[in-house]
Amino acid sequence: MGNERPRYWFPLASLGFAQLIVMALSFGRPPWTEGWFAYAPGNSQQFLTQNLYGVEMSRESAAALDASFSGIGRNDGWLFAVLAVYLGTVLFYAVKARRAGNGPRWWKVLALAVGGLVGIVLADLVGYWEFDMDGDARSGVLLTLGLVVLAWLDRSVLVLVVAAAFVLCAVVLAQGQLALLLSSLVVLAGAFAALLSRPKAATGQT
Fold it and tell me: What is the spatial distance between Cα 144 and Cα 140, in angstroms, rounded to a whole number?
């Protein structure tokens, strides 16, 4: 136990690689320009499809709905990646705690996982509907708050520094793919620093 590395290397590394994967998958994907279900006016097949489903949508309403959904979903599977990172972090911390002999009961882990997933989704929706924040800003703010909470839980100055550098790269200095790349490099650097750090308990041993 005394020679273990800080646990926060896992969420930092997971977040960095998840963002890089999202960025890689977004390259070469055409933007949505014809409505959220490929609306094509003047097409007889479209009329048949609309009548079968009882949906009648004008070009204007389809474009508005497309803009609404693209504002929520933004960079492809970003939100799903964040949810996966959070779920993986909860499970990782639970397993580490159980191995140390003080693991929480399974229902507490389940409640923390489900509650956190719901909280992330609600926070993202609040940022969109109430504060009119764009996708990049919501991403940066949500992840920065998560890093601050992680720094508080692990009492880590390193994670707090990573959070400050993350919000600087993801919100202040850059946007879009560049912000995703820079912020990914920041958290990956924090993860490697944690893995390379000397365990605290080992400094007092011979």
Answer: 6
* 142 and 127 Cβ atoms separated by less than 8 Å: yes
Question: Which residue reads 């997933």 in tokens?
Answer: 117
Please choose, from the candidates 164, 185, 8, the residue with its C-alpha nearest in 3D space to the C-alpha of residue 85.
8
* Cβ atoms within 10 Å of 124's Cβ, excluding its own: 22
pTM of the model: 0.71
Rounded to the nearest angstrom, the gap between the alpha carbon of residue 127 and the centroid of all alpha carbons in its chain is 14
Residues 6+ apart with CB under 8 A from 90: 109, 112, 113, 116
Tens digits of residue pLDDT in 151-200 = 999 999 999 999 999 999 888 776 778 888 899 999 999 999 999 876 65
Buried b / exposed e along 180-198 (16+ C-beta atoms within 10 A): bebbbebbbebbebbeeee
